[in-house]
Design goal:
15 helices
Length: 344
């Protein structure tokens, strides 16, 4: 498939989803379906597919008639001439974008039950003030315990990151398109990318629940959860760095008859080692924050204390934990920022 056809197809798919969204919203507003109708997945999926195909058809017709759709504007090949400067409200793509963004905001407000009344409700404000009063008057008697659990949290994140690095490092080359160029290589690349996307889509808190049942509640379960999530995230980020390297050194080493391992080691690794270090340090920073959350489901660390005190409405104790977490996260953020700046 030529680049022109590929961009044309992407534009049609993009416009198809836009029109699908508009037609689905219009259908819900006009018909006002019941809860049972909304839960009819088979019928709704068929209707969505029909609207999607209608959207692709309308986009194709408009494109053939010379109209510039939003999809055409975004997905245009470098060989195409840029459109003439014109005010957005005089274009089809401008109104298309405005309608989509406006509908997205409106639907989002409806789906989230956004309400100024609830925000300004006096009873709710009084309850929030009582809670905040407790949090902002910390009970420092539990500080030693909080610090001990915070150290546990830091090491959970550290070990998870350290154990994830070798797996992510090796797998990143097998999931880089410019390294896996053969047909078999492409299948390996596609399989790994799919696995990484699935593993990353499962949040660390879900992995923590799985490992809490598998190995028992505690920091080991939390560390394993962070490790699995880190392998998927780091491997994907590492592979994207591999795909962005300059191919000049790689081609030069290939021309000498070097083996594939030598090509990767001497042609690619020197170009990515510093970005890898920067990404890895940032990942540890992320893992510390995530370790706080997974403790809520039995993953160990300071999150375990947090859920205990929160469940008993012991807000002064929660306030002490919040202060410890905030201080450590701020310090770690500054340290990681300086390290990442130094290795650039």
């Amino acid at each position: 498939m030529s680049n022109k056809n590929r961009y044309f197809l992407k534009a049609r798919i993009f416009d198809g989803f836009n029109i699908l969204f508009i037609l689905m919203v219009a259908t819900v507003v006009l018909i006002k379906p019941s809860q049972n109708q909304l839960l009819d997945l088979k019928f709704n999926s068929s209707l969505a597919l029909l609207f999607f195909l209608v959207g692709i058809f309308l986009s194709s017709v408009l494109s053939q008639k010379g109209f510039l759709t939003w999809g055409n504007l975004i997905f245009k090949s470098s060989s195409e001439k840029p459109p003439q400067p014109i005010s957005w409200y005089k274009t089809l793509w401008g109104w298309q974008a405005l309608i989509i963004l406006t509908l997205s905001i409106v639907v989002g407000l409806v789906m989230t039950n956004f309400s100024f009344y609830e925000i300004l409700n006096r009873e709710g404000i009084d309850g929030a003030l009582r809670l905040l009063t407790g949090i902002f008057n910390p009970d420092w008697s539990i500080l030693p315990r909080a610090v001990n659990h915070m150290i546990e949290t830091l090491f959970m994140a550290f070990i998870a990151t350290v154990l994830a690095i070798p797996f992510a490092f090796v797998l990143s080359f097998f999931s880089a398109r410019n390294v896996m160029e053969s047909r078999v290589g492409f299948l390996v690349y596609l399989s790994l990318r799919t696995f990484f996307n699935i593993a990353r889509s499962i949040e660390a808190i879900i992995w923590a629940i799985i490992f809490s049942v598998w190995v028992g509640i505690g920091p080991f379960a939390g560390m394993l959860a962070l490790m699995i999530h880190s392998i998927a995230s780091l491997a994907k980020q590492y592979s994207e760095m591999v795909e962005s390297v300059s191919m000049g050194p790689v081609e030069g080493i290939k021309s000498t008859g070097a083996a594939p391992f030598q090509v990767v080691w001497f042609g690619i690794v020197p170009q990515i080692i510093l970005p890898y270090i920067s990404i890895t340090i940032y990942r540890w920073d992320i893992n510390v924050r995530m370790a706080t959350i997974i403790g809520l489901v039995g993953g160990g660390g300071i999150g375990t204390l947090l859920i205990q005190y929160q469940g008993q409405a012991m807000w002064p104790q929660v306030g002490c934990l919040v202060v410890v977490i905030a201080v450590v996260v701020c310090l770690l953020d500054q340290v990681s920022a300086h390290i990442r700046e130094a290795v650039k």
